[in-house]
Design a protein that fits this description.
Layout lengths: L13 E2 L8 E2 L1 H4 L12 H8 L32 H9 L3 H11 L3 H7 L3 H4 L12 H15 L16 E5 L3 H12 L3 E6 L7 H4 L8 H14 L2 E4 L9 H7 L2 E4 L5 E2 L15 E3 H14 L13 E5 L3 H12 L4 E5 L26 H10 L4 E2 L2 E8 L7 E8 L9 E4 L2 E4 L3 E3 L3 H4 L6 H4 L8 E3 L2 H4 L4 H21 L2
Parallel strand pairs: 3-4, 3-6, 4-5, 6-17, 8-15, 9-10, 9-15, 10-11
Antiparallel strand pairs: 1-2, 7-16, 12-13, 13-14
Helix pairs in contact: 2-3, 2-7, 3-4, 3-7, 4-7, 5-7, 8-18, 12-13, 13-14
The structure holds flavin-adenine dinucleotide.
């Protein structure tokens, strides 16, 4: 099985984050490598941390706690992890039982323990007046231990009994993987089709390796293969394979192709958008990931080495672009965002137990602070225009910015910009040919089962979201596929 290298676990100088005991490596050091930024939590410290859990009667860290935010979304963990149960088990040293409890609700804790923004911690009742329980660190300690001890086994059906039913899944992101894992464990023959040269979806081709080591993804794919799931990579359904034929050849078809069409700006809105050296985030991150995976050269326009880099957009994708640019050897990185600098603490617009909306340094921003002495984000800034380089007129050379709100100082500023990355969100899927044969509309794609035997899951169904939601989506899709298959002769 793929081994996950020990450098990830090595204790090195630390930067404390507010979710102790999950610590990060020193930003000034980690900038020089691509190893994961998080350190492995210490077992004894984790047990003490788990002991801080109050085992609340109505635990808001789980949706069952009952709270719904104004937008209707439940606060807390979307996959209903029984967090108080594992905290209790970890506190008393019952690691194996804690793993079994975690495994019941989460197919891939090694992914969520690394990349989940942990809405459970935002909703933790302890967090009302002190630091919330470091739930993510407890999850990480449990799953690390489970792999170390050999408790994580291929999830085969009981008695390896096979039903003879077949399922095709298009897209191998966390939604497709979770659906595949669940349906294979029920004894169905599952094949996952993926257009990239590697399975994992954004876990493999989007989220950078310093946030999620690709060996961690490969290890899980191998376990799934050992359990019987088949992966067909390099297959672009709708281009190289006929979706209708796939549907006809299988008893059920799950569409989980993600939400990968990046939001763009027209040159009418952002003059200079068409200059060379201006790109969307996904092509930039995908090229970086492929370069690291295959060892092939980076296309020059997408290489930040020696360049002044501007990342436009203040979300998580923007943060990943910033961190990637530093590691490629960017000369400088700035990140203009229209948003105002958030308050230091929750304000009235962000009541507990929803998202706190307070100022925080993501890993990439901490790295900017270490490298350049300042948070790379420029808050409250509107990008006005991109200007060509005086030396290479077809290429971008500068970015003009101004305040995003009316301000006494309206003097536009100009920043050097040799590479501009637009990380301003995602609009929809990027794969219309896959759905054309059924004439599926956006409303259809938001429906879990728009046609008989055809199921939709993940970001494709709910819009750009999180790994933990994608896992929940995949599990829900499997729950719908199961009765459908039972009814198929
Ligand atoms: P995806 O992961 O997008 O997978 C869809 C897959 O379908 C892709 O592999 C694609 O190649 C394949 N596909 C598409 N069309 C076809 C076709 N026609 N034929 C075959 N295959 C096809 N979430 C977090 O929780 N934490 C994070 O730190 C985080 N960081 C992120 C960083 C970036 C840069 C991005 C873009 C997103 C991040 N997210 C993060 C969001 C998270 O990755 C997604 O919500 C999640 O991966 C969605 O899962 P999915 O299975 O629905 O789709």
């Amino acid at each position: 099985m793929t081994t996950v290298a020990s450098h990830i676990t090595a204790p090195t100088p630390t930067e404390k984050v507010d979710t102790n005991p999950l610590r990060m490596r020193d930003p000034a050091l980690r900038l020089n490598d691509h190893y994961e930024v998080y350190q492995r939590p210490d077992a004894a410290e984790t047990q003490r941390e788990a002991g801080r859990c109050m085992n609340c009667g109505a635990a808001f860290c789980m949706p069952e706690g009952g709270y719904r935010a104004n937008d209707g979304h439940a606060a807390g963990c979307p996959i209903s992890n029984d967090i108080p149960a594992w905290n209790r088990l970890v506190e008393t040293g019952r690691w194996r039982d804690a793993y079994d409890a975690l495994d019941r609700t989460n197919n891939f804790p090694e992914f969520t323990a690394r990349v989940c923004p942990a809405p459970c911690q935002d909703a933790c009742i302890v967090g009302i007046n002190e630091r919330p329980v470091g739930i993510k660190s407890v999850e990480r300690a449990i799953i690390d231990r489970a792999f170390d001890e050999g408790w994580v086994r291929p999830r085969k059906p009981p008695g390896n009994h096979r039903t003879g039913k077949t399922v095709a899944i298009i897209g191998s992101g966390p939604a497709g993987l979770a659906a595949a894992d669940q349906l294979n464990a029920r004894g169905h023959a599952v094949t996952v089709y993926e257009r990239s040269d590697t399975p994992g979806g954004l876990l493999a081709i989007g989220i950078p390796e310093m946030k999620l080591d690709k060996a961690v993804v490969a290890r899980r794919i191998e376990l799934m293969q050992q359990a019987g799931v088949r992966f067909e990579v390099g297959v672009d359904v709708g281009q190289t394979v006929d979706p209708l034929a796939l549907h006809a050849d299988h008893d059920a078809l799950v569409l989980a192709t993600g939400c990968l069409a990046g939001r763009d700006l027209s040159s009418a809105y952002l003059p200079g958008r068409d200059l060379a050296g201006v790109t969307l985030a996904m092509p930039y991150l995908e090229a970086a990931a492929a370069h690291r995976r295959r060892g092939t050269a980076l296309p020059e326009p997408l290489d930040a080495a020696g360049k002044h880099v501007v990342v436009i957009g203040g979300g998580d994708t923007g943060a990943d672009c910033i961190a990637t640019a530093y590691r490629q050897g960017a000369r400088s990185v700035v990140n203009p965002t229209r948003r105002d600098r958030p308050p230091e603490e929750r304000d009235a617009k962000h009541p507990w137990p929803g998202l706190p909306g307070r100022y925080a340094l993501d890993y990439a921003h901490a790295e900017g602070l270490a490298r350049a002495g300042a948070d790379p984000r420029l808050f409250g800034v509107q990008t006005l225009a991109l200007h060509p380089s005086p030396k290479q007129p077809g290429r971008v050379g500068a970015l003009q910015i101004g305040p995003s709100k009316p301000s006494p100082d309206t003097t536009p500023q100009t920043l050097p910009a040799d590479l501009v990355v637009l990380a301003i969100g995602f609009t929809t899927h990027d794969t219309p040919a896959t759905f054309a044969p059924w004439s599926l509309t956006p409303a259809d794609l938001a429906t879990p089962e728009p046609r008989a035997g055809l199921f939709v899951a993940g970001d494709l169904r709910r819009g750009p979201s999180l790994v933990v939601h994608a896992i929940a989506e995949g599990r829900r899709a499997a729950e719908r596929v199961q009765p459908h298959l039972a009814a198929v002769d």
